[in-house]
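testing teh design pipeline on a random one, pls ignore if ur not involved
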C-alpha cells in the first residue's frame, strides 16, 4: 500500500472521530481536494461509499480503521 498524504491521514482521523462515517457537505465541510483524497482512499480500500439522498457517505473499512488507529 502506498504511503498516505498528510491530508489523507487527517481525513481518516476526522472520519474515525465522527464515529466511522461522514457525509461531506452534511456532517462536515471538506475542500475539493479533500473529495479527491476520499475517492483515492476508497480505491485503496480504506473507505467504502454508500450513496444516500444527501450524497455519498464515506465509511471506514477495516483497513481504514486500522490505519486511523495505528497509522
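output:
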Amino acid at each position: 500500500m502506498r504511503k498516505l498524504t498528510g491530508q489523507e491521514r487527517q481525513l481518516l482521523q476526522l472520519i474515525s472521530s465522527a464515529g466511522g462515517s461522514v457525509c461531506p457537505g452534511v456532517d462536515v465541510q471538506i475542500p475539493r481536494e479533500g473529495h479527491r483524497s476520499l475517492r483515492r482512499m476508497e480505491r485503496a480500500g480504506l473507505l467504502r461509499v454508500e450513496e444516500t439522498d444527501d450524497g455519498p457517505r464515506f465509511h471506514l473499512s477495516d483497513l481504514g480503521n486500522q490505519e486511523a488507529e495505528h497509522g
